[in-house]
Amino acid sequence: VQLQASGGGLVQAGGSLRLSCAASGVIFNINFMGWYRQAPGKQRELVAMTNSGGGATVAASVKGRFTISRDNPKNTVYLQMNSLKPEDTAVYYCNVPRASGPVWGQGTLVTVSS
To answer: What does the pLDDT profile of the chain (114 residues) look like in tens digits?
Structure first.
């Protein structure tokens, strides 16, 4: 499985961005797809995760502002980010947990200016 993320960029505080991540390659029964982020000097943290049935987990720090969604036929996961704050500045990584080990996308930088 390969993951290709897109949609990052520079936005002012209060603005919105939408991240996309498409899975390709040998795709079989992908259940969970999600997003992590890593800010400078900090550990990578879970932002949101969704399963193929539509269930989702969203970090408390972004709940009510970020929404994760998924297009199963396209094997694509989205992260709609609204009301962005400077503390949301980070590299965002798409993630697919697998029994053989997690698969990561290349990361896309989101910068929120105050």
So the answer is: 899 999 999 999 999 999 999 998 877 778 899 999 999 999 999 999 999 888 999 999 999 999 999 998 899 999 999 999 999 999 999 999 988 899 999 999 999 999
Task: Please say whether the beta carbons of 3 and 23 come within 8 A.
Answer: yes
Instruction: Specify whether the CB–CB gap between 44 and 93 falls below 8 A.
Output: yes
DSSP characters over the chain = -EEEEE--EEEETT--EEEEEEEESS------EEEEEE-TTS--EEEEEE-TTS-EEE-TTTTTTEEEEEETTTTEEEEEE-S--GGG-EEEEEEE--TT--EE---EEEEEE-
